[in-house]
Amino acid sequence: MSDVAPNQDRSPSLQAIGLVKQFGRVTALNGADLELYPGEVLGVIGDNGAGKSSLIKCLSGAMIPDAGEMYLSGEQLNFKEPKDSQRAGIETVYQTLAVAPALDISTNMFLGRERRRAGVLGSVLRMVDKPGMRRDAKQALDDLGIGTLQDITQAVETLSGGQRQAVAVARAAAFGSKVVILDEPTAALGVRESGQVLQLIRDLRDRGLPVILISHNMPHVFEVADRIHIQRLGRRVAVVTPESHTMAEAVAIMTGAAAA
User: Fold this and answer.
1) Which one, of 143, 180, 175, 146, lies nearest residue 163 by Cα?
2) How distant, in Å, are the alpha carbons of 55, 59, 135 from that of 214?
């Protein structure tokens, strides 16, 4: 396998070793490995059925591998559910976004993590701290330079596809203290909105958050990824960079037309 070696003085932020996942007679992961290093965007590409989704679901706690090991900052992970990965500092934005269209931007930012008001209002009356959530949601959007969302009380169903993606990414950035995983973040978006999402990915990296980007869009992967993990038949077959390989060469490895 023609892996591109990272700097040897760095340890992975997130690592998977020999992950196996089977569904009856179907093997989704067959000894899959992955390393994500601090301050990088790792692109993950592969044909349909290559095991990309299963790999990401194991890393995000949505699926439990049958064998193998996972480590976050050197500590072994044993996720039983997605909440475990969130508590560990791993945030995942799936292609479906998981936003509540009828709710406003700030409520979506804190969906599942609603904060109660201080004192008796929160502990006894169980009132939600809407002003505080709106303030912090606006700050999170400002920190990422998202200027297209001015009204934090606007319902998500009134937003464009790119703006909805921005809300989901901002939510991940706000709570993902260690790793952010993005699954097809530019799917079904126009050129302009895709460009805004790609800039968000760069901003996350610039803030020091390592990012895993799963995408079928090769130009987007080659535009923002520092390294590119190529998945085939349930395992990693190569790691390349935009400098070392062309898109055509990466596709050839991905499909098996060329040796890794």
Assistant:
1) 146
2) 10, 13, 31
Collect the ranges in the chain with pLDDT lower than 70: 1-9, 97
Environment class of residue 122 by beta-carbon count within 10 Å: exposed (0-12), middle (13-18) or buried (19+)?
middle
E strands, 65-195, are 67-72, 75-76, 90-93, 179-183
Angle between helix 161-175 and 191-206 (nearest 10): 10
Instruction: Report DSSP state, residue 127.
Output: -
- Determine phi and psi for 205, rounding to 5 degrees: -60, -40
Strand-by-strand arrangement of the 41-46 sheet: 90-93, 179-183, 211-214, 41-46, 227-232, 235-240
Could you give the count of Cα atoms lying within 13 Å of 74 in the half-sphere of its Cβ?
A: 2
Specify burial of residue 251 (Cβ count, 10 A radius: 0-12, 13-18, 19+): middle
Among the listed residues 27, 18, 20, the one whose alpha carbon sits nearest the alpha carbon of residue 71: 18
Residue type at 59? L
pLDDT of residue 125: 79
pTM for this one?
Answer: 0.86
pLDDT of residue 9: 56
Q: Angle, to 10 degrees, between the axis of helix 130-143 and the axis of helix 161-175? A: 100
Q: How far apart are alpha carbons 192 and 204 in whole angstroms?
A: 19
pLDDT digits over 204-246, tens only? 999 889 999 999 999 999 999 999 999 999 999 999 999 999 9
Tell me the C-alpha distance between 193 and 160, whole Å. 9
For the purposes of burial, counting CB atoms within 10 Å of the CB of 141, is it exposed (0-12), middle (13-18) or buried (19 or more)?
A: buried
Q: What is the CA radius of gyration of the chain?
A: 19
